[in-house]
Amino acid sequence: METVQSAGVVVTGAGGGIGAALARRFAAEGARVVVNDLDAASATAVAEEIGAVAVPGDASTVVEQAREALGGTVDIYCANAGVGSEGTEAAPESLWAAAWDVNVMAHVRAAHVLLPQWLERGEGRFVSTVSAAGLLSMIGAAPYSVTKHGAYAFAEWLSLTYRHRGLKVHAICPQGVRTNMLDVAGSAGELVLAPTAIEPSEVADALFAGMAEDRFLILPHPGTDQLYRARAAAPEQWLDGMNHLQQKWEATR
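^ Dehydrogenase, sequence as received from the core. Prediction below:
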């Protein structure tokens, strides 16, 4: 991996949680960091803490302003901003639309702006904070599960399409992480995610280990790979197991 020393890095959704942990780690490694978040106060607080630049606002439209703040070049873009959405097929369409816009289209819009410069230079790094829900699924959270599958698919597509032209892509797929989003997951999160939840800093550690190996799939939790293989190799058994988990959750509500 090329050094991140002096690299221009943008982290969206970095006012707290995983995003703040990523921003702190990049800054500690000597990168020039832009901290983005819808919450301007949170973005400013993190930026001041780590000696970075705060660029508050919508993650979908932050690239140009962040690029200007970094002197014209973004080397590493962390598409971390996301929304956790409980609900079934009956969830309001506005909730589905918000999940799609933030969890998928914000990544698409950022890549659209970043790729011309990266492909011309022959290098660039796109980090997508997906979720294990994008590899597997999550009970009680249809909008979240579906859009995180979309985020993973887009990261995968970017990698298979542009890796020969110097683009490095990483899809971070953690299970439970001790952030506000875990609270949003409600009782389903308490049942499935909380028992093995890790700290945001551990997600940052996993990303840096994966970047050192230029590895696409970043799995901060041990065992996620076995679950992913089981889903692919024996889908009926995997669905049965997930349905049992669903029934267990329903019995506690």
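Residues 8-225 form a domain with the Rossmann fold fold (CATH 3.40.50.720).
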